Structures are given as structure tokens and as C-alpha cells.
Amino acid sequence: WFAGCAIVYNAYKFVSGSTLPLGICSSGSMEPTFSRGDIVLFADNRNIWPFQVGEIVVFEFPGREYFMPVIHRVVEIHAGGLDGSKYLTKGDFNNVNDRWGYAEALGGVKTYRQEPWYENAPMYIRERQIIGRLVAVIPKLGYPVVWMQENVPPEQAMQIASAAVTIFCMW
Predict the structure, then answer these.
(1) Which of 2, 63, 89, 158 is buried deepest, with most CB atoms within 10 A?
(2) In Å, how far from its chain's centre is CA 152?
(3) Where are the beta strands (DSSP E) in 79-143?
């Protein structure tokens, strides 16, 4: 069973062209489009279809010390420039577009912190930060992972995951 899942995952990763072909939604920022615990599938086909306003994308959160993908809707695109297009994103449930103050609250980039405009400055992302676009949503299937992230210490979570893999392999 586990080997079958690994084969399906790698096959989808190959077909989707995305380095991150699926994720688990861990916040409510995109409700009602999808909810915490939903599994979201992505594809990177930007060479065929450029990203559009209104499309849901997954991107690498700027300035993080560790990888943290974010799944939000594109609300504005500024094309061109020497560094490529810039994208402004927003969670469907959020009242405002993604802002640098929000980024800092989540451990993001802390440049220009002393400037008065900083807190409300829009947080544009570059196309190179985009991992893929939303293809499908599988409701609630990933909720056990969200629950473990919130309720189980990391070392115990690894032990539980290892035990689950062992059981599935033996089954």
C-alpha cells in the first residue's frame, strides 16, 4: 500500500512538473474555497499557460529561514521588469492583500522595519517563487497531519509517522 502511494505520488510529481505537487492546508486563510486539513494538488505548467489574476497559486514564502509554502489567490500582476513579473496575493478569508507586516509576524523578512510604510506595504512575490497552480482539492483527508502538527511534539510525531509507515509496509 505504501509503495503504491509512493509510486502514485512520484508519477503525479512527474506529470505535474511541480517540485511540490501536493500540500495540506494548515490555516483558514483560503476558506471557503478550501479548509484546514484539505489536501491540495498543484501543477507547474506556466510555460503553457501564464498565471492569471484570480488563480490560486502556491509559492515560497519570502524571507523564511525554512521552507513554508503559502497557498493564496493572485489579485494583481505587474508584468515585466528586469526581475520578471511581480504578483500580489491574498487569502480568500483575509481582509487585506498579503503585507510585509504579516510576513514579519510569521517570521519573514525584517527589512525596513523602522519605516512607517512598512507594516502595510504590499508583499509582492516574483514568478520564480511560485511553485505551481491549484489543480484539485481533496477535502479533509489531510486533517490528521494538521492535528499532529498542533498537538504532538515533533519527536513524538516522527515516532508516530515511522510506526505508521512500518505498519503499512507490513500490511
Answers:
(1) 89
(2) 22
(3) 86-90, 124-126, 130-138
Residuewise pLDDT in 10s, the chain (171 residues): 667 777 887 788 888 887 778 888 988 999 999 999 999 999 988 778 888 999 999 988 766 666 678 899 999 998 876 667 889 999 999 988 887 654 544 444 444 444 454 456 677 888 888 888 999 999 998 888 888 888 888 778 778 777 776 776 665
Q: Considering the entire predicted model, what is its pTM? A: 0.76
CA dist 107 → 36, 62, 78, 131, 141 (Å): 21, 10, 26, 20, 28
Q: Any idea which residues carry the catalytic annotation?
A: 29, 72, 98
Pick from 108, 139, 165, 115: nearest CA to 41: 139
Place of cell 512538473: 17
CA distance 40 to 135: 8
The single-letter DSSP state of residue 129 is G
The radius of gyration of the chain from alpha carbons, rounded to an integer in Å, stands at 18
